[in-house]
Design a protein that fits this description.
The protein is mainly alpha-helical. The chain folds into two domains: 109 residues, 3-Layer(aba) Sandwich (Rossmann fold), CATH 3.40.50; 76 residues, no CATH class. It is 50% helix and 10% strand. The chain is built from ten helices and five strands; from the N terminus they run αβαααααβββαβααα. A three-stranded parallel beta sheet has the order 1-4-5, covered by helices on one side. A two-stranded antiparallel ribbon has the order 2-3. α3 packs antiparallel against α6 and α4 packs antiparallel against α5. The protein is globular and about 55 Å long. The chain starts with a helix and ends with a helix. The mean pLDDT is 81.
Length: 195
């Protein structure tokens, strides 16, 4: 989003998938990553968890359809990556850059109007445990010309939960919309109109 409104001449369309930055709320685990000592806690937790347990959890969850899915796989993959100090520290620093204990500190909602002339596709899973789906719905209401697609039953990775639908949707969005032809002058005009 930020790239789109800062460099409108480089942006023809925007597709946001399970996007953060559209509201304050996020899940507790992400907010906890902003606490002092989070990197150390993740290091201890990953070091104390045998690799076989993570693999067994993944296999067991696949046998229970309610638990299986892209969200669990994403969580287990993220957890495994925390064993690497660089990945762990990057995650914690990224979380601290955008979040605090109350949720997202940085939101793009006050700048969404700058995308009014740009084709925007908003995609979210109806059961996203990370970013509330209401954020995406509210962004669509702010941008009435945007296109909203909710993947029923999908979580935080709707593009993985239903890749065929996502691919078809993205291809159709790219071929059926006219690219935006904004430039710095149009950005300046839009910013002046909001004063």
């Amino acid at each position: 989003m930020q790239l789109a409104y800062q460099y409108p001449e480089s942006t023809e369309r925007v597709a946001l998938v399970a996007s953060g930055g559209l509201g304050k709320g996020v899940n507790l685990a992400l907010r906890a990553a902003t606490l002092p000592g989070a990197s150390t806690a993740l290091q201890v937790l990953t070091a104390a968890t045998p690799r076989w347990l993570t693999a067994a959890t993944s296999r067991a969850a696949r046998a229970v359809p309610v638990l299986a899915g892209a969200d669990l796989e994403g969580l287990l993959s993220a957890f495994a990556s925390f064993g690497d100090g660089g990945a762990r520290d990057a995650f914690v620093q990224t979380a601290r850059g955008a979040l605090d204990l109350s949720g997202q500190r940085l939101t793009g909602t006050e700048r969404l109007h700058l995308l009014a002339e740009t084709p925007v596709l908003l995609v979210a899973g109806s059961r996203d445990p990370v970013i509330p789906v209401d954020h995406t719905v509210n962004a669509h209401e702010t941008l009435p010309r945007s296109r909203l697609e909710l993947f029923d039953g999908a979580g935080h990775f709707p593009h993985i939960d239903d890749p065929r639908r996502f691919t078809d949707l993205l291809e159709e969005f790219l071929t059926s919309t006219q690219p935006a032809h904004a430039d710095r002058h149009s950005l300046r005009r839009n910013l002046q109109e909001t004063r």
